[in-house]
Amino acid sequence: MSNKKKIFILTILIVIACSISLFLGVNESNIGYFLPKRANKILAIAISSFCIGYSTVSFQTITNNRILTPSVIGLDSLYMFLQTVIVYFFGSKTLSMLSGYSNYFLSIGFMVLFSLILFIVLFLKENRNLYFLILSGMIVGNLFGGMTTFMQVVLDPNEFFVLQGKMFASFSNVNEELLFISILIILVVFVLTIKNYSTLDVLSLGKDHAINLGINYNHFVLKNLIVISILVAVSTALTGPITFLGILVASISRELMKTYKHTYRILCSVLIGFLFLIVGQFLVEKVFSFNTTIGTIINFIGGLYFIYLILTEAKR
What radius of gyration do the chain's Cα atoms show? Predict the structure, then answer.
């Protein structure tokens, strides 16, 4: 089966899933209430799918590693550290007041700023290896995680209950105003990166081959790392962290799309992410009756798949 047919089938499945999610249980008396809320939910899923799909595939190409995701840089840990610091020092009421624009831009600003400092200081300085940057990001991420855990342990249980809502991804109560801001950011990023796909194709050959073929390696990698940090920041600030979705969609798209072309691989990753999230959200609402979160489902499946990938890579 050709790659185009696979993309077409995924698109049909998504249209069916979206139709069920939008119109199941809707009638003339409740359509005005349910339809806008469900449409916003699907829009948030689409935004997260693009952010996670593009960032993971491009990050794996840059690092030339099939089991790494942008989360190793520590952005998810930084996000939870910021939310915990707000509750720890200023109380849960402050976090509730910052749930709109303030918290959104504060989270994105700190995550992107942290990424820039990490990239410029550790990657460009003395032309250090990219893996030095990844290792440093993992160490700093663990540092943030440790401090976050310490503050959460000493929090008042009522304060922690409010903070707990930020610890898991949720598409049920997404701020409508933040959706449109996120879409604008995504559109700008899409326009700026649309020409990068062919360069990523070359970069998949390896650093030395890419440089020999005329790619300005450091400049291109730094630009893409910044784009990746922006996308991860937007997705995390809008809906919360989903750790293992990236490795899940990138690996499955690599198996489905037997091609080096990133146009197909990234598109397939976005579509698979969309399908996983919308089906997962349906299970959370209709099967589990909101007794679990979509992040828990995705991380459980993704964690098992991650173990499978490690065992598979070890046998090669």
Answer: 20
Residue 71 carries which side chain, given as an amino acid letter?
S
3-state SS, one letter per residue, for 249-279 = HHHHHHHHCCCCCHHHHHHHHHHHHHHHHHH
The residue behind tokens 């119109």 is 23
CB of 87 closer than 8 Å to CB of 163: yes
C-alpha torsion angle, residues 73, 76, 82, 85 (rounded to 10)? -100
Give the pLDDT of residue 80. 84
Contact at 8 Å (CB) between 51 and 237? no
Burial category of 248 from C-beta neighbours within 10 Å (exposed 0-12, middle 13-18, buried 19 and up): buried
pTM of the predicted model as reported, rounded to 2 decimal places: 0.86
DSSP per-residue string spanning 63-102: HT-SS--GGGGTHHHHHHHHHHHHHHHH-HHHHHHTTTHH
Which pLDDT tens digit goes with each residue over 123-153?
666 556 677 777 777 888 888 888 888 888 8
- Token digits for 290? 């909101």
Separation of alpha carbons 190 and 188, rounded Å? 5
Which parts of the chain have pLDDT scores under 50? Answer: none
